[in-house]
Write a structure and sequence with these properties.
mainly alpha; Ferritin; 73% helix; 0% strand
């Protein structure tokens, strides 16, 4: 009788140990599934990502801001040198381009790289391009117009690449508007080149892309971009 009671006691003890182990495993699993406050799960729940931007987009926006400043500064320099209204008109347009890119920088919380001084740039590539363009543009009116065409040629090329690379619809919208204006600028310089009987060979666009742009009509208006 005692033997049977002893066996029963052992069986009960083993059963309780098994149940205790199962409860312990269940609690551990629940604790692992529960994400404590202050972790990435809370961040994902509380943020819509509407103001987040990929690093490649950030770098491109910073570059674009300085590139638009470079265009403005070159045109201001060339207008002071040659007093051609085409440079004055387009320099004002480039200021608006700068302002629009700045809106994007502010929207995404990116520091503005633009230096206050004219002809001064953080990006070495843009600084070298500015130096080269003003050096050639001050030699003659013809070279100045070629410099303007080169700027718009490069600007359209860069904007199109940026549109293709980014997935952000707001950036695509702003870049599309800037590119539309740059095509108009290129047409304006092309008309001056034609009057001077100068053939311009595009440095960045293909010849087919360049011909299609200058043969087109002035593009008015733009697409509203909702910030």
């Amino acid at each position: 009788m005692k033997s049977n009671n002893f066996k029963l006691g052992i069986l009960i003890t083993i059963t309780m140990m098994i149940l205790s182990g199962l409860n312990s495993c269940s609690k551990t699993t629940e604790e692992e599934d529960a994400v404590p406050a202050g972790t990435s799960a809370d961040y994902l729940a509380d943020n819509t990502f509407k103001d987040m931007i990929a690093l490649s987009d950030e770098e491109s926006l910073v570059f674009m801001r300085e590139e638009e400043k470079m265009a403005r500064d070159v045109y201001i320099f060339l207008y002071e040198k040659w007093e051609l209204m085409v440079f004055d008109n387009i320099s004002n347009s480039e200021q608006r381009h700068m302002d629009k890119v700045l809106e994007l920088l502010v929207h995404f919380g990116i520091d503005d790289p633009a230096l206050p001084g004219y002809g001064e740039f953080v990006n070495e590539e843009i600084q070298e391009l500015y130096n080269s363009l003003v050096a050639s543009g001050e030699t003659s009116v013809e070279e100045a117009i070629i410099a303007g065409a080169t700027i718009e040629d490069k600007d359209i090329f860069d904007l199109q690449n940026f549109i293709n690379e980014t997935e952000d619809e707001l950036i695509q919208c702003v870049c599309s508007n800037l590119m539309r204006a740059s095509r108009n600028h290129l047409r304006a310089f092309a008309r001056h080149l034609e009057m001077m009987e100068i053939d311009y060979t595009p440095q960045f666009l293909t010849q087919e892309e360049y011909d299609a742009i200058i043969s087109g009509s002035h593009e008015a208006g733009g697409t509203p971009c909702n910030f």
